[in-house]
Amino acid sequence: MKKIPEAVGPYSAFRKAGDFLYISGQIAINPENQKIEAITVEEQAKQVLENIKAILENNGLTTQNVIKTTVLLDNIADFGAVNEIYANYFVEPFPARSAFAVDKLPKNVLVEIEAIAYCGK
């Protein structure tokens, strides 16, 4: 079982309900030490997606099970850089996706991503 980051508040990192796995917004926490070590938006996006991948794998799923993601960015100018990293984790048919720039993210990170995965057959 892969390590996953602990939630940074009173919420679950993920919850399964019926045929769906809901993954809370993940930030660039290194699950080995629960610290944010990634500095650039690219490094942070990679760590976020690795965290999502670990949660999926711990639930017997892959990124191909993801049907929807929401990407939150500190700066919309980082959209292209995050998109390049994101493209390394998903294949066609790609998940539906929304992306927003927000005022601030937890722990002053640059990117946060949440996901919904389908667990049914």
TrEMBL record:
Transmembrane feature ranges: none
Keyword match Protein transport: no
Pfam families noted in UniProt: Ribonuc_L-PSP
Gene Ontology molecular functions: deaminase activity
InterPro entries: RidA, RutC-like_sf, YjgF/YER057c/UK114
Domain of life the protein comes from: Bacteria
Gene Ontology cellular-component annotations: cytosol
Similarity annotation: Belongs to the RutC family.
PANTHER family found in the cross-reference section: 2-IMINOBUTANOATE/2-IMINOPROPANOATE DEAMINASE RIDA, 2-IMINOBUTANOATE_2-IMINOPROPANOATE DEAMINASE
UniProt protein name: Rid family detoxifying hydrolase
Organism: Leptotrichia rugosa
